[in-house]
């Protein structure tokens, strides 16, 4: 059980981040939810998680595109035994047409935020004598697709940062690993399905198999709970000697 541990999950008011927070709370961890929005719903989500799992759950606003706010998130939490770097955005365009401000935002949110949060969290983990860093990378941290230059560069960068974090903590009771999901069924992905069905004149099954999941051999999306379960595993005693590596949750994508 992770009871008594504090987990900070960046970008966790929806999708994978919320799924990971739920599974960590189910395993007994106190959780800190984060986004840049600071809405009533954000705070209500934390309250709900806390009530459902009998843990302490708090929401802390911080913009992961800003280094000082990344560090402030960790400081405000006051403790960080488990750090899950999850916040991420996407933009799709060819390199020669890729807007510089989108490149900068993706590098900042998807990659540099993990540097800042890790830098702030490691001293707390060392003081506590235990720590887990789990970076939510992507199949695009291991392989590429056209038109996703910033995302692929940032996710490869996160995998590199994960390895360095592991080496710098190798002799301490701290591990650092990256989870590399393929397609995960989140509300954002779910929302694209009806439009794609219309566009191709296909039913849901066929759109998933023939359009969205052509690179995912299982032809099934992972769920946010499965990414959460993988995170809980990386925080378990069984994973003590797993550090500096990647776990693909991609239905065989990177085996192709
Ligand atoms: P999502 O859009 O549902 O969630 C993104 C989260 O990041 C949200 O909680 C959002 O509030 C937060 N966020 C965005 N910008 C932020 C900022 N500036 N400051 C703080 N928070 C911010 O997307 P998701 O699919 O759940 O993605 C979560 C992570 O998983 C991302 O890093 C993404 O690259 C990765 N991922 C997703 C998939 C997938 O298929 N959905 C696959 C592989 C990897």
Automatic annotation (TrEMBL):
<comment type="similarity">
    <text>Belongs to the short-chain dehydrogenases/reductases (SDR) family.</text>
</comment>
<dbReference type="GO" id="GO:0032787">
    <property type="term" value="P:monocarboxylic acid metabolic process"/>
</dbReference>
<dbReference type="Pfam" id="PF00106">
    <property type="entry name" value="adh_short"/>
</dbReference>
<dbReference type="InterPro" id="IPR020904">
    <property type="entry name" value="Sc_DH/Rdtase_CS"/>
</dbReference>
<dbReference type="InterPro" id="IPR050259">
    <property type="entry name" value="SDR"/>
</dbReference>
<dbReference type="GO" id="GO:0003858">
    <property type="term" value="F:3-hydroxybutyrate dehydrogenase activity"/>
</dbReference>
<dbReference type="InterPro" id="IPR002347">
    <property type="entry name" value="SDR_fam"/>
</dbReference>
<dbReference type="InterPro" id="IPR036291">
    <property type="entry name" value="NAD(P)-bd_dom_sf"/>
</dbReference>
<protein>
    <submittedName>
        <fullName>D-beta-hydroxybutyrate dehydrogenase</fullName>
        <ecNumber>1.1.1.30</ecNumber>
    </submittedName>
</protein>
<dbReference type="InterPro" id="IPR011294">
    <property type="entry name" value="3-OHbutyrate_DH"/>
</dbReference>
<keyword id="KW-0560">Oxidoreductase</keyword>
């Amino acid at each position: 059980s992770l009871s008594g541990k504090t987990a900070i999950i960046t970008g966790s008011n929806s999708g994978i981040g919320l799924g990971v927070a739920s599974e960590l709370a189910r395993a007994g961890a106190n959780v800190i939810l984060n986004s840049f929005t600071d809405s009533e719903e954000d705070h209500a989500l934390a309250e709900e998680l806390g009530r459902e799992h009998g843990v302490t759950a708090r929401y802390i606003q911080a913009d992961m595109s800003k280094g000082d706010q990344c560090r402030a998130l960790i400081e405000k939490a006051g403790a960080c035994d488990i750090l899950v770097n999850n916040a991420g955005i996407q933009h799709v365009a060819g390199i020669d047409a890729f807007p510089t401000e989108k490149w900068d935002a993706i590098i900042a949110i998807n990659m540099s935020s993990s540097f800042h949060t890790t830098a702030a969290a490691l001293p707390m983990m060392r003081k506590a004598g235990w720590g887990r860093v789990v970076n939510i990378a992507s199949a695009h941290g291991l392989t590429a697709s056209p038109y996703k230059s910033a995302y692929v560069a940032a996710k490869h960068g996160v995998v590199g940062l994960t390895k360095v974090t592991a080496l710098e903590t190798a002799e301490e009771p701290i591990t650092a690993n990256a989870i590399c999901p393929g397609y995960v069924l989140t509300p954002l992905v779910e929302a694209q399905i009806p439009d794609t069905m219309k566009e191709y004149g296909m039913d849901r099954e066929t759109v998933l198999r023939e359009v969205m999941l052509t690179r995912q051999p299982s032809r099934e999306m992972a769920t946010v709970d499965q990414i959460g379960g993988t995170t809980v595993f990386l925080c378990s005693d069984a994973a003590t000697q797993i550090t500096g590596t990647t776990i693909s949750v991609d239905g065989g994508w990177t085996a192709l």
